[in-house]
Design brief:
The chain has helices at about 35-45, 95-110, 130-140, 160-170, 190-204, and strands spanning about 1-15, 25-30, 65-70, 80-85, 120-125, 145-150, 180. Strands 1-3-4-2-5-6-7 form a 7-stranded mixed beta sheet, sandwiched between helices. It has a single domain (about 1-204), classed as Rossmann fold. With about 200 residues, the protein is α/β, with parallel strands linked by helices. The chain binds guanosine-5'-triphosphate and magnesium ion (MG). Guanosine-5'-triphosphate binds near residues 38 and 59.
């Protein structure tokens, strides 16, 4: 088991020439606006305010790069990974020009970062599988980019319904082999599976 011990904001960027080097295994977080990407990064790093969050969709407009230091439990071994917070999609009030800017920014990220350790796609546990997420997941399969799905805001539905809702989402999203885990940032629940997944991807 690895444990995140320190995290730093590196920089924001739009153009590839401004990206920091991909020096360590890099995980990117993607999903609709307001689904909880930045909140999840803060939860994983136990660092409130590391990634800026807001109840208004469209808070993250740039690519935000973070450097993460972790330790392997019961050993002195440590290492680094990178997190990248991607701007959210599907924000209804965004203009066409903004949408085009977003598309270009995210496509270029995937074209530049051909060796991503993984992508975390976030979906809201209360919503049906969304065509935008399905499309994103298709792209990831096509590009053979390892990915998992986090069903966020699991505190918003009764505990007894979490398992079946996640199973239904997995079907709707046509996930196949890719794992899906429920998380609640409000209750600090569910991140251990994601950390395990990171560890497998780093080691494997
Ligand atoms: N109840 C609950 N609220 C959450 C959870 N995760 C995030 N939120 C709330 O959802 C809102 C959006 O969270 P953000 O982390 O800013 O969302 P984002 O995906 O980064 O949004 P953009 O940057 O706009 O793409 C905030 O008000 C969070 O407090 C959760 O697990 N439970
Ligand atoms: Mg954000």
């Amino acid at each position: 088991m690895i444990r995140i011990v320190e995290s730093f904001f590196v920089k924001s960027a739009v153009e590839p020439q401004d990206y920091p080097a991909s020096a360590y295994p890099e995980f990117a977080f993607a999903g609709r606006s307001n689904v909880g990407k930045s909140t999840l990064i803060n939860l994983l790093t136990s660092h409130k305010g590391l990634a800026k969050t807001s109840s208004t969709p469209g808070k993250t407009r740039l690519l935000n790069f973070f450097l993460i230091r972790y330790k392997r439990e019961n050993t002195e071994e440590q290492g680094f990974m990178q997190f990248t917070d991607l701007p959210g999609y599907g924000f209804a009030e965004v203009s066409l020009t903004e949408l085009e800017k977003w598309r270009r920014m995210v496509n270029r990220f995937f074209e530049e970062r051909l060796h991503l350790a993984g992508i975390v796609i976030l979906v809201d546990i209360r919503h049906e599988a969304d065509p935008k997420d399905i499309q994103m997941l298709k792209m990831l399969r096509m590009r053979k980019i390892p990915h998992c799905v986090i069903a966020t805001k699991s505190d918003k539905i009764p505990k007894t319904r979490i398992k079946q809702t996640v199973q239904k989402l997995a079907k709707g999203l046509e996930l196949g082999e890719a794992p899906i885990f429920p998380v609640s940032a409000l209750n600090y629940l569910g991140t251990e599976h994601l950390i395990d997944w990171f560890e497998q991807r780093i080691s494997g």
